């Protein structure tokens, strides 16, 4: 996908969310400060859960029961592959979000998009709703990344 196409997709989604009420500035600053650490933690946990879901490392199998929105009853391998991609994007976002770079924010956006796609594949309305709410917070903090 060309960079222009990606920017057009982000711009279109941003337009949808721009009509929603903003959250207070101090809340946005807190979200920005914890975002890198949330990306790191959930990136690691997501990869461990997906690896367990694929049966590669069974010691993490109890993590599947906690659910990643991509539970074992979903569409199996496709769901786990999407979980690995989304989690890897979260890990890739860590250095950029820590340095308040737009590249980090962009990795978060695409991770969220992949998570929503995985929820659609799994027919998880709750997962889609959580993803859409996540986008709300993501677009609320976008201006903090350069």
Largest sheet: none
Determine the fraction of residues in helical runs and give it as a percent range. over 70%
Principal-axes geometry comes out as globular
Mean pLDDT: 88
Count of alpha/pi helices: 6
The topology string of helices and strands comes to: HHHHHH
Strand content: under 5%
Q: What is the number of independent domains?
A: 1
Terminal CA distance: 22 Å
* Helix/sheet category: mainly alpha
How many beta-strand runs?
Answer: 0
- Poorly predicted sequence stretches spanning 5 or more consecutive residues: 68-74
Radius of gyration: 15 Å
Report on the structure:
The chain contains 6 helices and no strands. Helix 5 packs antiparallel against helix 6. By secondary structure, the chain is mainly α. The longest helix is centred in the N-terminal third of the chain and has 29 residues. It has one domain. About 5% of the residues have low confidence.
């Amino acid at each position: 996908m060309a960079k222009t196409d990606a920017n057009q997709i982000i711009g279109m989604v941003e337009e949808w969310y721009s009509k929603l009420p903003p959250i207070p500035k101090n809340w946005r600053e807190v979200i920005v400060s914890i975002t890198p650490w949330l990306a790191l933690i959930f990136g690691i946990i997501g990869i461990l859960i997906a690896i367990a879901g694929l049966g590669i490392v069974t010691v993490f199998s109890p993590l599947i029961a906690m659910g990643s929105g991509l539970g074992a009853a979903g569409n199996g391998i496709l769901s786990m592959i999407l979980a690995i991609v989304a989690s890897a994007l979260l890990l890739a976002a860590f250095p950029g979000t820590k340095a308040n770079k737009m590249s980090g924010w962009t990795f978060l956006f695409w991770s969220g998009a992949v998570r929503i796609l995985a929820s659609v594949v799994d027919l998880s309305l709750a997962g889609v709703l959580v993803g859409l709410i996540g986008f709300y917070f993501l677009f609320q903090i976008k201006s903090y990344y350069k």
